[in-house]
Amino acid sequence: MDLDALRFADFSKLSTAVADWTAMATKLWELESDARGDLGGKAAKADWAGVNATVTREFIGKTAKEFADAATEATSIGNILRDTHGELVDYKARLNDAISRALEKNLTVVGTGDGGFTVTMNIHPDRAAKGHTVPEHTEEDATAFRDEVQRILQGATESDTTAAQALTMLVSQTPYGFTDAAYYDRDRAADAMKDADRIANLLKTKGDDMSPEEFDKLNKDLAKYKDDRLFQEKLATTIGPRGLLDFWADLADPSDGGTLQRSRHDQLGDFQRNLSLTLAGATQSDSPAMRTWENDMVKLGEERIQTRGSQVYGYQVMSNLMRSGDWDNRFLNDYGNALVATEKKMKLPANYWNGGLPPVPKMNFIGEDFGRDPMTGFMTALAASPNAATEFFNATQPTDNAQYILGDRQTFDDTPLNSKDGNSAREATGAALVAAATSVDPNDMTARPDDLTPEHRKVLDRSLKYLSERGDDFPPEMRDDMAKVLSAHSDVVHHSASTLSATDDPRLLDRQQLLEVSKQLSRDQNAYGMLNEAMNREMINDIYGDRPKDPKETLQRAGNTVGFLEEARYQALKTDKDDPTWEAKWLYHGFGGAANFIPVVGDIAQRGVDALAYQWQIDEQARIDQGFQEKNQDVFRLRENQLRTLSEEWAKANPGHSNDPYTLENEIDLAAVNGNKRAKGLAGTP
């Protein structure tokens, strides 16, 4: 900062700006409260339908959040301006105090016009008034005064510059909206950018040659700033896409003799996670610098990254740095589309990703897989961003992603040290599919599905098509995931399984595809249990909540769905009769992961669900105890307790009916037999 600019500065306008931004923030927080509590609250409670359910409510939700982001940004700007104003006023006072003290020793300071200054005598002794003696000073006094002025100007310059950088980065993160980055003072923002610059330079200049102590501090700093938007963007843009890829490839390759692989091997997973969180946060910025960063990273995917002992592809490196955090939806889809296009062009991903001279042994330190298959890390990131996942699995241009990922893609063993585990890429793909079809991150055990949209239904339809076409090659790793998908869509699954004939009803799923997928799920006890638990709940919910013209429809639909599910189970038993994968004893418990995806019912219906679940469990245990695994028994014999309980719940939900228990049970038994026969016809079973 220029000497005279600080010495004679008028900070009244800055003071006014602080007051204005503080007042603006206060008003915006009041509006945010109204938007969240009034507008958002009413939107959440409203019974939406049609276009309003998918467009208007989403618009209201985004609008309410924009008020919160606007209030946060205004508060951050006000805080940074307030701190900067206070610091600059203090530096001005310190400068003028130093000048006053220097005058007592006949010293003064003069700006040179180019941002510099010079210390000189205030009055030369030869020009002093007659009879007036000027104060004396030493050379040390002049040097001390010069150094003090220099420190003051440097401090003021840093305060002004870092404030400008922080404000610029804040407003550039969202050119068409508001950022949720929160800063309570200028120092915190300035420190974040300084540390980001220091860490980026450490990664670029030393890489895995850094000392274990430097690595420990680096890891600690990344954890400290994992939610800091300015730090994240500054670090990502300073190291740059290529610098980041070079660093991780070098760190993962042990052939250069670096000490970190040995001395800090157990900490590399935490470091990978912290770095991933940092990069994910950076992609949430819409600044021009980050847009360029993201575009360049996608372009680098096909490039080979040379290490001392090997070569790896950019996709392989980057995908391993995407395993944690909330990544920007646009970046995920751009990256994923490019990755699919590359794999389709190369045709044999297993050979392609296992290339190298030789390949880097392990690029992933989170979990068992080596990280050579880039689809694993990408799908892991996609699962944590349900909206991006929905867009990705529904995309048909530049390629049909669902057809390739769920149908055509060749996988390979990326966990050679464990021959009994599943395929990591398929595990990750299953999780991403769940997110795409349900709006829920399957790794977040507290999340519940939002209302399903036509886009979620589209994912369901497309996944049924491509997975059913695989027949008995259905990936075992994805059975429980598809069970979660069908559970979340249990209303249309029950509606389709219980329908009597194919019509143009838009709610209907393709019943042959549904039956084939249900069969594949039934080959796994947990997936089978999850699907049936969801259907039990849906049938009870239908009985208590639906109001058809003829109440008997809900009873008959329940029977038909039971028959449909039984045929799917029988088809699974036939497939696996020589190598059954189920345990000998039926497990009476809730099924893993089901609770997040099975729709909630009311209290009265829940009591019926509990009763039905218990009786169904008894039927399943009897199936095993009586050796029915390989016999196509009549459905009413295998599920008699379940069917009887359904008839009893129907009677409770319809107290004005004129049927006795015998006729109700007989009616649902017949419906189950008919549903079973209809499913056999769909499967082509005689």
The major β-sheet equals:
2 strands, antiparallel
Beta-strand fraction estimate: under 5%
What is the end-to-end distance?
A: 89 Å
Instruction: Give the fraction of residues assigned to helices.
Output: 55-70%
User: Rounded to an integer, what's the Rg over CA atoms?
Assistant: 34 Å
Number of strand segments: 4
Secondary-structure class: mainly alpha
Shape category: elongated
**Quick check: average pLDDT?**
86
| Uncertain ranges | none
Care to describe what's here?
This protein has 686 residues and is an all-alpha fold. 64% of the residues lie in helices and 2% in strands. The protein has 27 helices and 4 strands. It has helices at 3-7, 12-45, 50-103, 139-172, 186-205, 212-224, 229-252, 260-263, 268-283, 288-299, 314-320, 329-346, 349-353, 374-383, 386-394, 401-408, 424-438, 454-468, 479-488, 490-497, 511-521, 525-545, 552-575, 603-625, 635-638, 640-653, 661-683, and strands at 107-111, 117-121, 304-306, 311-313. The strands form 2 sheets. A two-stranded antiparallel ribbon has the order 1-2. A hairpin with a 5-residue loop joins strand 1 (107-111) and strand 2 (117-121). Helix 15 packs across helix 17 (424-438). It is elongated and about 130 Å long.
